[in-house]
Amino acid sequence: MKGTESSATPARIAAVDTYDIRFPTSRELDGSDAMNPDPDYSAAYVVLRTTEGGHEGHGFAFTIGRGNDVQVAAIDALRAYVVGRPVAELCADPGSLYHALIGDSQLRWLGPEKGVMHMAIGAVVNAVWDLAAKREGKPLWRFLADADPAWLVSQVDFRYLTDALTPDEALELLRRGGRGADDRAAELLRRGYPAYTTSPGWLGYSDEKLTRLAEQAVAEGFTQIKLKVGADLEDDIRRCRAAREAVGPDFRMALDANQRWGVDEAVAWTRALAEFDPYWIEEPTSPDDILGHAAVRRGVHPVKVATGEHVHNRVVFKQLLQAGAIDVLQLDSARVAGVNENLAVLLLAAKFGVPVCPHAGGVGLCELVQHLSMFDYVALTGTTEDRVIEYVDHLHQHFLDPVVIADGHYRPPAAPGFSAAMKQASIDTYTYPHGTFWAADAAQAAATAGTGTTAAGAPGQDTEVPV
Question: Active site includes 359?
């Protein structure tokens, strides 16, 4: 690993700084769906600072507003495991920290390996991978693709997995997948990675806005859009009809119910929308209901079933695959315990031959997950067939290395790291509750209290907010 420290004074992690960053996306209904009508897209954000004073590691857990302070507190609870660790050793073996963090028995009791603590571990572990890639001078996708397959296997936790995937099988998948990697990396740089957009489909948008954004997606080179459904069937039929008319008969259109339905309802509702030729139905029921997903899949065929953004860990993904419950696996870069666990998920999907179409959108999820899909293409599965990365066109301007979309494709990041670093001005503005935006918002609300008027930009109002 590259670094600036001398052998006499090895650089160490000097500080773990955390921030509660929230954006008022609920005021434009960006991100709205049947289960989450008023999300304020947020990041429990972490920065690993080092004694070498150069590279920093950046990571975050994505939430949608209230509770982001709880997520920050969970990251804070991990600080003692990180501060003081030698940087070179940490970056040479991120798995060592992963194991230490999931192995704290008292914190593990809060999961185990799921929920707020697991997401906190993911934020910290991802920050380590960001730091490691920066020290190597490579974007993370290239850092992973160039890595020795045996080392990558050493980063995967195979506990609970070996009935479905053994280390030897994983090593063979990576060795086989690495053949021709240089040619695929060149093709990736030339063409990019296919994307689909959810931007037209938020449930709170008017039909006019849906139609305009759907037509725009076609013009911009996307080959798939996604609509939120599940609140009202008649509304869904009307919106699906408008979207299908906007994009034409041969354009892929996916649907996302965001866990709204029980199993029987999911089957009946999806069949009612079948006339619009949906490509997949996403999160049709509880993300924990493996057998329910399998039943839905049988009941809605040939519509595909997709899920994964709320799947807790590699073990649940393993069972979804073993049960034949999904056609599309939608891993999330910040839901599980970071890159290490997502490597396990990618390897499982490759073993079972199920395409990965990651969940993105949110705050910075597009920035992160592009690296995982690009690694999968270059050095694991070797294909982008029936594979797309979700794209949502907001909040990218707050990142130092934002995603770039051209002709419906993600352009591969070139800057070293995991593309997770936010601009300091954005941190200063949107840190809750004392950042300049939120302080001014609170002052405005206080000034209008008791006057019988509504503060400009109050949640649910159609007021432009500079996010």
Answer: yes
